[in-house]
Write a structure and sequence with these properties.
Blueprint lengths: L1 H11 L2 H18 L10 H4 L1 H8 L8 H29 L5 H10 L5 H18 L11 H8 L2 H24 L1 H6 L5 H35 L23 H30 L2 H18 L2 H6 L9 H5 L11 H24 L7
Helix pairs in contact: 1-11, 2-9, 2-11, 4-7, 5-6, 8-11, 9-11, 9-12, 9-13, 11-12, 11-16, 12-13, 12-16
Length: 359
């Protein structure tokens, strides 16, 4: 039965074409995002080769050996800066020629603009790590910052859920399939619940594919690494109170997101059963699934428990200054359980109303 429903949803309602189209658009957008201007790129990417050569050997947990090595580099840089200042002073007093000053600069790449930017970026990262060396490791963070702050994935999945639910749930009511199953062995209510479960499976698989593609694209573009490092190593999560690695943090985000998908499919199912009108259902599904995440402020999405918050789990888990929106472990588990039960309850209630539906 489920295989038949899957085939009908993917082929008859052309969901597979909608999914492929959204995936292509999603991949092209993420692959091209930020390429239009070098100015939007951070130092790590803008001067990648120079920064990598300077950064080599410092990545990971901060140690006394790395501290001593950095001090040697700093002393060398200070000495060069002092020599350059002296030569500039001599040039001003006409004791040397411009050619001698330019030759000194050419012989020492450390005085170039590119190296100076990378050197300052390294010092900035070290300062951040030294504030809390037990929870912060030195790492390249540009790729992770873009990965966790880019919400494109969530809106692509919201659009897919709307398309999926409108074509399947509303389509079944308008074509009279429910009337046929009312007198079949399967039964209308059981059929609709099976269909809801199949829709959830399709939506969940699509969400996992988009999340895998997002990680792959950012991995290729920025070479993101350090999944075993503490999540606080990324500056945007400096206020997170959880002792989690980046990899575990990503797994939590995926889990919460999958719960959110289930809830939104249950909401769409419930709206179709309650409104009983095709056009009204389409309009209401669009309003209640697409608009709230776009209109609600970040504080409401994070602080007030709701199914939309789970679509943006990084905002819930990262914490803010004074921990005003930080959730404890018990609160977090309760958050997920309540949302999961709410989504399933909406679907079950809608299935029971199936017999009173008027297409």
């Amino acid at each position: 039965m489920i295989s038949v429903l899957l085939k009908k949803i993917l082929i008859k309602y052309k969901i597979i074409y909608a999914a492929l189209f959204l995936l292509v658009v999603f991949c092209v957008y993420l692959s091209c995002k930020g390429n239009y201007s070098i100015s939007v790129k951070g130092v790590e990417k803008k001067y990648e080769e120079t920064f990598d050569s300077l950064f080599a050997g410092y990545e990971g947990k901060w140690t006394a050996q790395k501290e001593a090595r950095l001090e040697q580099m700093t002393d060398k840089q200070d000495a060069l800066d002092e020599q350059f200042s002296q030569l500039s002073y001599d040039l001003l007093n006409k004791k040397i020629t411009e050619d001698k000053l330019y030759q000194f600069v050419r012989e020492h790449k450390e005085l170039g603009t590119e190296y100076d930017a990378c050197y300052k970026e390294l010092l900035s990262k070290v300062d951040y790590v030294q504030e809390n060396p037990d929870k912060r490791y030195l790492m390249k963070t540009d790729g992770w910052w873009y990965y966790f702050t880019d919400d494109t994935l969530y809106y692509v999945n919201l659009v897919f859920i709307v398309i999926l639910c409108m074509l399947v749930f509303v389509g079944e009511t308008q074509t009279g399939i429910l009337e046929i199953h009312r007198f079949s062995k399967v039964g209308e209510k059981k059929f609709f619940l099976l269909q809801w479960g199949t829709v959830v499976v399709v939506a969940e698989v699509f969400s996992l594919i988009t999340q895998a593609l997002k990680f792959l694209i950012y991995y290729v573009r920025y070479g993101i690494s350090g999944m075993s490092y503490p999540i606080q190593s990324i500056p945007v999560f400096e206020h997170c109170g959880w002792n989690l690695s980046i990899g575990v943090y990503m797994a939590l985000c995926v889990g919460f997101y999958m719960i959110s998908v289930l809830c939104l499919c249950g909401l769409a199912f419930l709206l179709v059963m309650i409104l009983r009108k095709g056009q009204e259902s389409v309009f209401t599904i669009f309003l209640l699934i697409i608009l709230p995440p776009m209109c609600l402020s970040e504080k409401i999405l994070c602080f007030v428990p709701n199914m939309y918050s789970l679509m943006f789990p990084a905002n819930i888990l990262r914490g803010y200054e004074n921990n005003w929106s930080f959730l404890s472990l018990k609160q977090l588990l309760l958050y997920g359980v309540v949302s999961l039960v709410a989504g399933a309850a909406m679907a079950v209630y809608a299935g029971r109303k199936g017999g009173r539906f008027e297409g």
